[in-house]
Structures are given as structure tokens and as C-alpha cells.
């Protein structure tokens, strides 16, 4: 039986002309446990040396509900201050617009403040991708677009994206932007398959938008399945994992990457060996039947 196409080593970041690795590394938990700049640097090196050049963070990462807002950005900024040459090896993405306890704020005044604060913490003059983290339904998209376009014009941001937006919210913001969106970041995993059937991936392909998947392991549930559905999906992944001598998590990443939308899974591990291992997902190949077996297990019912 013929195999689905192998994922490329790199993919375009939308229509930006920027090339990103087909796997990303995310820093949601970078600042946990009092990690030092030297320890964080080892993780950055592990990603870059494995060919993972797309690094994704956010101003809210590290926040525990009381303090630590911006900690993950600041820690990465310390790494870059100590080794400035690393900045040229990465495509750096961050996010903003969550402002506890409001909880969301994309008013023009706050967005200007949030973008500048991220740049200060990251010790960089610009980010390659800035994403609206979650939509603020109390701010008109025209106001958001004005601030973001101004930031691009000022050289603070190279490209723009959204995270956790509906299709209508994405289109509304893009309508007012001079610098069109290049990415969207929804939750996607073999356990979170909404986007395969609700039009999100079709919309991204039609508009040339890169798809970045957060929580590609289902919040860890794929590694420790509890429900019958979780176990069924894990078993379908294991069939391919065992045949190709990879772990279940690598099979899960590669399952997403096999989709024609070019889904980029964001690896959340903060262990160097697992970050390096993630790059092996590029070598896993799927048959059409194997791929659909996972989807059917996730749906819980046969395909129509």
C-alpha cells in the first residue's frame, strides 16, 4: 500500500517568505522549578541542534495565577543576552493579549504596552511572529489591526498570527489588517480532532495560513490514557509506532504532520532528550488506512 507524503524538513510560515521547521518547540513550562539561564540554554541548543528552529513562547507563560507574568520570556531573554548569536538561528514567536484577571485585553493601549514589554523581556528588537493569544470579544478587530500594523511598520514584529480564534474571528481581524495573518494556533491532537471536520484546516489551506498545533499530545493524555477512547487512540498510534520503532508521542506528532495542511506540532517537553527525539517524527510514514484508523478511534464511531 502506498505511503502518504513525507513531511518536509521545513515549511513556509504562511505567505511571509520565512521558513520554519516542521516541528516547533514551545516554552509554556520553561520557567518551572527555578530553571536557570544555563539550564534553559541547554534546551534551546537541543532544539536548534535537532533542526527545530521555530520557538514559541508567550507573555503569560510562567504565570501561576498570582505572580511570574512574563517569566518564560524573561528566561529566554537571559539565554539570548548570554549568547546573542542564537537569535539568528531561530524563528522566534510570542503571544499576548491575556491580562489576568480581566482576563483578555486587546485594547490598543494595552497591546502597545504588551508588545513592548515582550521585546524587553526577550532582549530582542523584534519577534518573527506575534500572535493574539485568545480573542478579546470586547475590542473591535479594527483597533487590534491598527496596533499590530503599526508594530510591523515600526520593525517590532515581522509577521502576525492568531491563537484559539474561531474562523469568523480570524476573518474579521484579517479583514482590517494591512499585514495579513500568516498563522493560526489551535489545539490539535489525535484526541482533539475538531479542526479536521469544522473547516479550520480547510480555511488555512485556502488562505495559505500556517497551522501550529498546541498540546499535540492531548495534554499528556496520550502518554497515560485513561478513558476507553484515549486507549483506543493510543492503540491505533502504537500500531505504527511499534512497526517503525518509535515512541507513541513521535507517532502522534507524525500523524498531525501527515495532514496536507502542514500542521506543525509544538513540542512542549522541557527535557533535552525528548526535544531531540521529536525531530525523528520527520521519518515516520503513514499509509492512508493507518492514518484513518487513528481518526476513527478518535471519533468513536465509523466514518460515514
Automatic annotation (TrEMBL):
Q: What are the NADP-dependent oxidoreductase domain coordinates in residue numbering?
A: 23-291
Q: Which Gene3D superfamilies match?
A: NADP-dependent oxidoreductase domain
Query: This chain belongs to which protein, by name?
Result: Aldo/keto reductase
Which species is the source of this protein?
Sphingopyxis jiangsuensis
What phylogenetic lineage does the species belong to? Bacteria, Pseudomonadati, Pseudomonadota, Alphaproteobacteria, Sphingomonadales
Amino acid at each position: 500500500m502506498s505511503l502518504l507524503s513525507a513531511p518536509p524538513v521545513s515549511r513556509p510560515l504562511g505567505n511571509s517568505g520565512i521558513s520554519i521547521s516542521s516541528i516547533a518547540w514551545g516554552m509554556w513550562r520553561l520557567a518551572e522549578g527555578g530553571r536557570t539561564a544555563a539550564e534553559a540554554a541547554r534546551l534551546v541548543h537541543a532544539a536548534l541542534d535537532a533542526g527545530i528552529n521555530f520557538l514559541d513562547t508567550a507573555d503569560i507563560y510562567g504565570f501561576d495565577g498570582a505572580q511570574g507574568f512574563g517569566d518564560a520570556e524573561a528566561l529566554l531573554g537571559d539565554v539570548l543576552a548570554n549568547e546573542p548569536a542564537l537569535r539568528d538561528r531561530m524563528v522566534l514567536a510570542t503571544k499576548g493579549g491575556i491580562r489576568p484577571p480581566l482576563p483578555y485585553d486587546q485594547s490598543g493601549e494595552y497591546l502597545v504596552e504588551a508588545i513592548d514589554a515582550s521585546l524587553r523581556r526577550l532582549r530582542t528588537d523584534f519577534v518573527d511572529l506575534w500572535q493574539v493569544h485568545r480573542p478579546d470579544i470586547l475590542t473591535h478587530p479594527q483597533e487590534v489591526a491598527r496596533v499590530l500594523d503599526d508594530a510591523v511598520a515600526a520593525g517590532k514584529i515581522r509577521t502576525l498570527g492568531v491563537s484559539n480564534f474561531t474562523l469568523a474571528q480570524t476573518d474579521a481581524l484579517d479583514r482590517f489588517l494591512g499585514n495579513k495573518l500568516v498563522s493560526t494556533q489551535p489545539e490539535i491532537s489525535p484526541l482533539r480532532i475538531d479542526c479536521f471536520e469544522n473547516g479550520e484546516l480547510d480555511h488555512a489551506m485556502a488562505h495559505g495560513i500556517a497551522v501550529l498545533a498546541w498540546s499535540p499530545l492531548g495534554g499528556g493524555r496520550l502518554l497515560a490514557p485513561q478513558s476507553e477512547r484515549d486507549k483506543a487512540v493510543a492503540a491505533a498510534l502504537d500500531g505504527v509506532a511499534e512497526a517503525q520503532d518509535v515512541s507513541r508521542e513521535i507517532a502522534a506528532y507524525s500523524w498531525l504532520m501527515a495532514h496536507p495542511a502542514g500542521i506543525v506540532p509544538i513540542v512542549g517537553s522541557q527535557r533535552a532528550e525528548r526535544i531531540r527525539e521529536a525531530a525523528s517524527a520527520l521519518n515516520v510514514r503513514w499509509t492512508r488506512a493507518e492514518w484513518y484508523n487513528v481518526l476513527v478511534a478518535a471519533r468513536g464511531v465509523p466514518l460515514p
